[in-house]
Amino acid sequence: MTGPAVVLIHGAWAGSWVWNPLLQPITDAGMRPIPVTLPGVGETLDEPAELDDVVAAVIGQIPDVEGPVVIVGHSGGGVVATNVAEALAERVAGVVYVAGMMLPSGGSFVDACDRAGLTAPVGISRYLEYSADGALSTVPAEAAATIFFHEAAPDDAVAAARKMVPQRESARLISPTWTPERFGRLPRCYIEATLDRSVPIQAQRQMQDLVPGATQVTLDSDHAPQLSATAAVASAIIDFVVAVTPQPVR
C-alpha cells in the first residue's frame, strides 16, 4: 500500500491496542495505520523513558516510511505527537489530537487546567497508585473503566480497563518543546470528547485556545472514542488525512 501513513500514538498506562478498532477503517480508506509502542509502559517499563527517549522510540519505528505522514496522539500521547512532528516537520503533513495534550511549548496539562478554572486533582489523578519510590504510577481497573471507558459497551470497558499497565512518571509528566517554524506551521485537528472525565472538555478547549489554529471536531464521547465512538473518530481522522495529503485515497 502506498497511501499516507497514519502514525498512532497511545497515551499513558495504555498500549497500541487502543487503536485496534481503527486499523481496519483506516486501511479501508487506502491509508497505512502504524500503531507504535512507547517505552516506559507495560512490557517496555524498564526502557529509558524521558521525553527524548519516547520521541526517539516513535521515530525509530517509522524510519522506512515513505510519502506523507500524519501523526495522531491520544491523551498524553499528544505531547509525544507534538515533539515527533517538530522533529520530522519536513515529512509530516499534519497532526491529530484525540482528547489529547495539545500544549504550548513548555506548557503542561496542569497549567491548562488551572487556566480553565479546574480544581486539582483532575480526572484520573485522584485514583492513581504509586510505587514506593514514586517512579511508577498505575490506574486501578475500576477507576479506568469509570474515568476512561464509561461510554463504551460494558464488556469492552472492562476488557480495556484490565489492559492498563504501570507507567513511568518520567514518560507521563512531560511538556512539549516546539517552534513556530516547524511544528507551528503544520495543519492540526483537535478531536474533542465532550463527556471526557479524564481530560475535561474545559481543559480540552483551553488547550485549543492556548494553541490556536486546529480544525475542531466534537464528539459526544468519553476519553477513548476509539472504543465508544469508533466510526465517528475514524471518520474524523480519515477526513483530516484526506484534506492534508496530496495523494489520492481510495
Overview of this protein structure:
The chain is built from ten helices and nine strands. It is α/β, with parallel strands linked by helices and 250 residues long. A six-stranded parallel β-sheet has the order 2-1-3-4-8-9, with helices on both faces. It has a three-stranded antiparallel β-sheet with strand order 5-6-7. Helix 2 crosses helix 3 and helix 5 crosses helix 6. The model has no long low-confidence stretch (mean pLDDT 95).
How is this structure best summarized?
The protein has helices spanning 20-28, 51-60, 77-87, 109-115, 141-147, 154-162, 169-172, 201-210, 225-228, 230-244, and strands spanning 5-9, 32-35, 69-74, 92-98, 129-130, 136-138, 167-168, 188-193, 215-219.
What fraction of residues sit in β-strands?
A: 15-25%
Order of helices and strands: EHEHEHEHEEHHEHEHEHH
Cα(first) to Cα(last) distance is 11 Å
Task: Give the fraction of residues assigned to helices.
Answer: 25-40%
Oligomerization state of this entry? single chain
Give the averaged pLDDT, no decimals: 95
Helix tally equals 10
**Biggest sheet, strands in spatial order?**
2-1-3-4-8-9
- Residue ranges: pLDDT <50 for 5 or more in a row? none
Shape: globular
Q: Structural class given helices, strands, pairing?
A: alpha/beta
Largest sheet: 6 strands, parallel
The count of DSSP E runs of length 2 or more, i.e. the number of strands, is 9
Radius of gyration: 17 Å
